Amino acid sequence: MITVKNLSGGYAGGEVLKEVSFEVGKGELFGILGPNGSGKTTLLKMISGALEFRKGAIELDSRPLTQYSPKQLARMMAVLPQHSDQAFPYSVKETVSLGRYAHQKGWFHSWSEEDEQIVLKVMDQTGIAHLQEKSIVELSGGERQRVYLAQALAQQPRILLLDEPTNHLDLSFQKELLDLLKKWAADEQLTVVSIFHDLNLASLYCDRLLLLENGEVLIVDTPAEVLKEERIKAVYKTQIKNHPHPEVARPQLLLVPESDDNHAADFKIDSRFLNVGHDRITLKTPVKLRTMSSGITGAGIGWHNSFVHRVVPMEYDCSDHKAEMAEYLQANGFLPSETVAMMTAVPAETTARRFFENGCLSIFIIVSAGNTHRDSPRNINTWLFINGRVSEEAFIQSAMTAAEAKMSALQELEGSTLLIASQNIGISTDSICIAATQKGEEIPYAGTASPLGKLISEGIYACTKEAILNYRAGKNLMKEYGQSTSNVKHKR
Ligand SMILES: Nc1ncnc2c1ncn2[C@@H]1O[C@H](COP(=O)(O)OP(=O)(O)OP(=O)(O)O)[C@@H](O)[C@H]1O
User: Which residues are near ligand 1 (CB < 6 Å)?
Assistant: First the structure.
């Protein structure tokens, strides 16, 4: 639909674009990215015919742009510039109606029923129908932006050029506008070329992206290829992290602000932060730790500074244990949004709690192990605190390494009637929380052969064994505890 070949040119002051080449297909949503001053608007102006180029060629539908008359171009293409300021206080409907100009025939432009229907339809689609009698000068920036988009759509173009269309729009209108453009691109085979400053929106909506740097094309490809962390860091000269969107298969880029956290790189989590009570174990940290957990509260990946291991009676029975846990946390002074919480009927006193260190690596482990009831599933809850900056890969490997070490400990203690009964039928209610301080040098790996993996293996194996043995030794204690609290039955 659009072919740009070796395009060069700029302004009297100097060349801006250098040998720019790319193609945009019919019905494609194509994004132009690049830092301030890289030439995005200049490129859009050249494609729209508003700015002459010095060298190269632009073709629309295989025909040189220069062969189109202004009226033919206006029927083919609509432009939504970055700053659409209109001097005349036209009403919203009048402003949108101007979009029909290119379609009117003869010297005496007549307003047809078709023109009327198209204007009403695009006002409806852009959510401005209720504003139609208002003067454009009375509108907010976002409302005005939608009026100009409606005007462009009223033109019924085959190509739509947009310069930062979501500028001024609040979150819901950003989504609505881009959903609408995507739908128009698919349903009406509208070709959309848009400049974006918001790389995440571009990633979510565009089929392909062009990245400009100093007037040259750095890459034209899919969002996943273009938005590589190292490339964007280098082009925009800023710290970012690439993270996949949780719901759609598109990359998202997160800014990394300068840290205002003054805890030293060798800040360590250890028993100083731990509090072991009869009915719960808690660990509170002065900074939030990055967590990966399967806890009742705080499951998944997040950042948390409170860790609660709650001991409940054997008879605990609750249909909505997540809500009940959130109430418990609140009642006991913990913010559920900042807390990873687990539950067990294993007495707190039998948990194993140990600090392991090897050179500059250190971890703090808390394991509780036992059966929550005679014949009921095995329950081993593991907290693994890693003092260091752990890569995504190492987080996952930590969980694998910890699971393997736990199984080794269980196998060695196979004689345990309490644990093996449920193990044989393959049922467990085990939970794990891995929390890292994310300070200091990055630790890339935590597989069993890596230094961190070895420390985790050794620590989890030792703590799991210790917790099981403590539990066996303390069975009587558990019985007493179960009886003393049997009248406290949690039922919702
Ligand atoms: N009318 C003009 N006359 C002379 N130079 C211009 C003109 N418009 C832009 N420039 C220069 O051309 C270069 C590219 O500008 P352009 O507006 O195309 O960049 P951009 O990538 O769209 O930037 P931004 O992200 O800030 O909108 C800049 O150095 C700018 O100063």
Answer: 11, 13, 16, 34, 36-42
